[in-house]
Amino acid sequence: MSTVRLRGCREQKYNYESLPTTSVIIAFYNEAWSTLLRTVYSVLEMSPDILLEEVILVDDYSDREHLKERLEAELAHLPKVRLIHATKREGLVRARLLGASGAKGDVLTFLDCHCECHEGWLEPLLQRIGDEETAVVCPVIDMIDWNTFEYLGNSGEPQIGGFDWRLVFTWHVVPERERKRMRSPIDVIRSPTMAGGLFAVSKKYFQYLGSYDTGMEVWGGENLEVSFRIWQCGGTLETHPCSHVGHVFPKQAPYSRKKALANSVRAAQVWLDEFKELFYHRNPHARLESFGDVTERQQLREKLKCKDFRWFLENVYPELHVPEDRPGCFGMLQNKGLQGLCFDYNPPDENQIVGHQVILYTCHGLGQNQFFEYTSRKEIRYNTHQPEGCLAVEAGGESLVMELCQDLVPENHYFLLLSDGSLFHEQSKKCVQAEKKSNDKFVPLLWDCTLSSRQQWFFQEQML
Asked: 1 lies in a domain?
């Protein structure tokens, strides 16, 4: 696989004298020698000298020996590169701000510490910001293999960023409405959210927007907060199809989801308005999370006269389904006859959430894989993740599986939750019953309706 650079990108000409300059900021903590130096050298080699003001490396209090005197010696002979050592562990957000505080360039370009910049990566970003100061622009993120570190590039078109109602970042194809807006294949692509590791922003505009929320420390959640703030406060968030940067995606997230949860709570409290309840329903333990004081961030929102979150959903991300979460119709779907057992859906791959069987498991009250919603369209939705799944009956069988939800509800997705507790499948004229499989595990199966207690179900909100 290799990077597909559109012909229009290759033909693009730039007047370097008129473009803004940039400071490239790379924060790291205990990063491997090879990946860190690969990032630095690719920035130097692939960036026009006239546009690159400096490369600022911020060491977030690493304790590995190769990141001390050895790194200083390696960087000493490199032009435009300077190294800042934090005097204590700051976390991603404050480490980046350490680099940004003394940056001399007109534009701040943030990169992760395990990247490789592709030829022509920088000019499109700076051109766009030079044309529109309130545009925050991301490169197309290409794949670098985790095991071999081979630059795999990409074989398809760029994707946009989204999120699910746990406030977890997700990738999606470019929607048709955005394709219609674009004037050409090399026009910027508007994106509801960004992954957060790689983006360029006018230094002046970054400061105007309130830079980062310093109440956030670890990686995770800060990208969505910045994304909401950009859109709701008058800017645009875009991906430029002519800019490519390779990135090593670790097999595991570089942060604990538990530690990042406080960041998500801060974002919800400041930006989501009444829609924050959808987040809390799917993360009931988030209500107990200590997230600090957000008064200053709420005042910033008021000062900048930012739009509300309903505007964001309607104008920036209309593709996102907004759950109804009607009282008594969401939460844990529990069996009456087998008390303590709930619907549970835990696919082996979060990127392929449909096509797997729903099981019954001990009710845990934590949301996530046991959160379901019964909609006014008579669907049982699994809308914790994206894309959303809807309960269906396995073709030619009796097991319950997840299929992608549809704009027009297929007959196989229709279920009636009756007043007697029955979960009636209209197409088959059968009821959902809790049954034990040969491996002694219980699953929901279609069964002739008898109104036994194992055919009675009720929703319980997942409050701790």
From this structure: no
